[in-house]
Design brief:
heterodimer, A: mainly alpha, flat, B: globular
């Protein structure tokens, strides 16, 4: 597998890298679930949750600051929640463009953005410390249908090849799209979009032909519709115990958050 | 890697609440399960590398962009294209794989939100796209131009459907106000959908010209009669969700919550008629019981309508089979 796909995965030998991928996947899902469950106004919970994520990051050999920066990828989506600022009733805090921003609105908006940012960091940690192949293996041992896991594994394997193909197509288009300085080139938007469509069609045909070659080659090696893998190593009690630590910490934070909020 | 336009569709975690996220997962599991059965019966082992490579194709094709204006660029989402080229069930698997990899490996879309991301961009687009494409093609008598026009229409409609579904899910989660978010999402995506329509039509025109043999002919959907077990499973899950609904959240509807807080709820006009007012069954006092009963009745009505529609479409197809 070439480097460009595994760009998220950072090879390493930290404790988090060595942890059983099944445990990592399940713990990540529980973390995301727990972060989402946090009551909106339980403010003390958020720094605690971040401390939990940051200490996991440290265990995974990733700086908490770096993870926090990477975690901002989902922030543009916050625009979708921005309506909360105006539509939540409560004490007016500011007036912008004739709309009233309420304190309650700011609180709800901040909670959504914080939860999103924390959950993205948890998910990031999983892909930073787990090789895609191990992740697929974890999926299949968690009873995700084998056919789906195989489709995913073929997809991951050919992602780079097809992305290279796209780069070739883009380069070819750029090479034929010279323009005189200061002049618009390349026709109107409709024409440009249609060209992009032709490129997608061309990519489809190349992908299809490649999949036929892949199938023929796989068959030559005795492929019968299922991947042969080595027997899965058993889930050790040690791995489960390590996985239980962040889950217990999360449970404590959530319990405190609910008490604080409900009180 | 992906522009903000793209991010507008992939819901990250934190934006859907837990009950909504879990309902999305349940729906995704049912649909993907049926899709696995359908495609497995049709094509067998050969299908697996094909689907994997085509999932990589959709992922890569989203990187083909074209300059629009002012430094922004448009690009493909691919749901309609997959549906047209592969048929709805295979498209469900391909798009599910794309969204799973984007969420798991690239944090493009959340993990809890993956259920509804798959529904919005994979399942909804596959069926809506295929239905619109087939309808337009049939209406225009299946000429080569009809396929191109059908592809454009299907692409535009799927983007709009996905945008509307996203706005709806965010509103139900209480993350955004429906009366603001729905027009905004549908409005913005009406323009984005034009780009999708042009690219999809361009791709279909290209495939039709260079490899007409690959264009799906009007395949008789004989397989629609299969999967009775899955329909039953889907019904069971839907009923389970209905039973769990009063337990899931004391504020099931974000909008209603806002309205209540505002004390606007009294001012809200009553619907002219209402079969199950406020999701309760008249004449039953216990609130939990009545909510469950209303949910069960609702599920059964939806299932009956769906089954009826399936029977009608089956009858339309059967003379050709």
């Amino acid at each position: 597998m070439s480097d460009s796909l595994s760009q998220r995965y950072q090879p390493g030998s930290s404790p988090l890298h060595r942890l059983d991928p099944r445990v990592k996947l399940v713990v990540t899902l529980i973390l995301v679930l727990g972060i989402t469950l946090t009551p909106a106004q339980a403010w003390p919970a958020y720094p605690l949750l971040w401390a939990l994520v940051a200490s996991l990051a440290a265990l995974g050999g990733t700086g908490a600051g770096r993870l926090a920066r990477m975690g901002s990828v989902a922030l543009p989506f916050a625009l979708a929640a921005a309506t909360l600022l105006f539509t939540t009733p409560g004490d007016p805090a500011a007036h912008v463009l004739g709309l009233t921003i309420t304190h309650e609105g700011i609180a709800r908006f901040a909670a959504v953005v914080l939860k999103s940012w924390l959950a993205v960091q948890a998910a990031l940690l999983l892909s930073l410390t787990t090789h895609p192949t191990d992740l697929l293996w974890a999926l299949s041992s968690l009873r995700v249908p084998g056919v789906l896991v195989q489709i995913l594994s073929f997809m991951i394997r050919y992602l780079d090849t097809l992305q290279d193909e796209v780069q070739r197509l883009n380069r070819a288009r750029a090479a034929r799209s010279a323009s005189a300085p200061g002049q618009r080139a390349g026709g109107n938007v409709v024409w440009r979009a249609t060209i992009a469509g032709h490129m997608a069609g061309s990519l489809f045909l190349r992908s299809l032909e490649r999949s036929e070659r892949v199938y023929a080659a796989m068959q030559a090696r005795g492929y019968r519709g299922e991947m042969r893998v080595l027997a899965a190593p058993p889930l050790t009690r040690r791995a489960v115990l390590w996985g239980a630590i962040p889950v217990i910490a999360l449970g404590l934070i959530e319990a405190l958050a609910m008490v604080w909020w409900r009180a | 890697m992906f522009g903000p336009v793209f991010l507008a569709m992939h819901i990250p975690d934190g934006f859907v609440n837990v009950p909504v996220g879990l309902v999305g997962w349940a729906l995704m599991i049912v649909f993907v399960g049926v899709a696995l059965r359908q495609t497995g019966r049709q094509l067998g082992e050969r299908q697996i590398p094909l689907m994997g490579v085509l999932a990589a194709f959709i992922f890569a094709a989203q990187m083909i962009n074209f300059p629009v204006a002012g430094g922004t660029s448009g690009h493909l989402l691919g749901g309609a294209l997959a549906a047209i080229l592969l048929g709805p069930w295979a498209a469900v698997l391909v798009m599910t794989s794309v969204i799973a990899v984007q969420g798991l490996l690239f944090q493009d879309g959340g993990l809890l939100a993956m259920g509804f991301n798959t529904i919005n961009m994979g399942i909804l687009t596959a069926f809506v796209g295929y239905a619109v494409y087939s309808a337009v093609r049939k209406a225009l008598n299946g000429t080569p131009m009809a396929a191109v026009i059908g592809a454009a229409a299907a692409a535009w409609v799927t983007v709009e459907a996905a945008a509307a579904a996203t706005a709806l899910e965010l509103a139900i989660s209480g993350t955004s106000a429906l009366d603001v978010a729905l027009p905004a999402m549908v409005g913005v995506h009406a323009v984005i959908g034009l780009g999708e329509a042009l690219i999809t039509a361009g791709a279909i025109a290209f495939v039709q010209q260079t490899r007409p043999d690959l264009m799906p002919q009007a395949q008789a959907s004989a397989s629609s009669t299969r999967g009775t077990g899955w329909i039953a499973a889907g019904l069971v899950i839907a009923l389970a969700v209905a039973f769990a609904s009063p337990l899931a959240s004391s504020h099931p509807d974000g909008l209603e919550r806002v309205a209540e807080d505002k004390a606007f709820i009294d001012e809200a006009e009553d619907a002219p008629y209402s079969l199950l007012p406020d999701y309760t069954v008249p004449g039953i006092d216990n609130e939990t019981v009545t909510t469950i009963a209303a949910g069960v009745i609702g599920v059964l009505i939806v299932a009956a309508v769906g089954y009826g529609a399936a029977r009608v479409s089956q009858r339309e197809h059967s003379p050709q089979a």
